[in-house]
Fold Luciferase-like monooxygenase.
Amino acid sequence: MASKQLKDLTYSVLDLATVVQGQTPADSFKHSLDLAQHAEKLGYTRYWFAEHHNMMNVASSATSVLIGYIAGGTKTIRVGSGGIMLPNHAPLVIAEQFGTLASLYPGRIDLGLGRAPGTDQLTAMAIRGDNFNASHHFPQDVERLQMFFSADNFDAKVRAIPGEGLDIPIWILGSSHDSARLAAAMGLPYAFASHFAPALFVSAIKIYRDNFRPSEHLKEPYVLSCVNVVAADTDKEAQRLATSVQQFFVGVVSGKRQLLPPPVDSMQGHWSYLEKEAADQMLAYAFFGSPETIKADLQDFVDQTQVDEVMVTSHIFDHAARLRSYEIFAEVLKG
């Protein structure tokens, strides 16, 4: 197989509307719009939000609302979900919400769907109630969603208005072999959460490609990989900025979440040996460094995986440094 060149890659943004220390979700939303407008100018293809709940440092819980906010403040970049956790919602409601978004911003809305709750079990129970085991119905719920979007549903007793007959691309998101098999069977594009769950990435995308069945939506398999990126003008500065995301992941593995902290000169004393091992494992597909370092490491990654698209998430404390990181990454891919 011929190796893909970086200039051939599609590149996009995943935003968790991360809340940094000393600020509020309102500040995060303003920064998200600023970043989306910046990304649009830099040639990024899509800007997605991830649905999470009951996390003090992640403010993207009302995902559909944020998508509308960003789409309304931009002109050409695609905006969508990475993803909507479908078992948290009735498929009809999601069809109506995204039908409304696609009616307001035609040709610009993506709908990525995940099976996980996007939160802890207690919060999932509060969200789902009697539908706590809805994740078992995920494949059927994706099909129901497709039915609501279909123009052939016009004579059904239950219809999605707006939503019916609209062209809203559906993606399957995941971090396991199950999601790979489902995306392959349904002939849908596959987005893998390699930014925090890298363990099964290589085997999952092989399963997806080997078992892909062409559909009316997609003729050939399409793999998107989400990765962590902290780019700066020098390796030293990038490594310092990256200590914020390293501290973020310490909070994930220890259960002691905090608002995104400022960078530190050294992680020594900020994590235990076991916390470092766990955080490093979750950050296996993280690219920290100068333009030269990012370029070399990313080309190695693309050579190994042959992904079609990279989606960048960057937990960087300083907003200006975050904008600069996305700028450097775009410059690297453009060559």
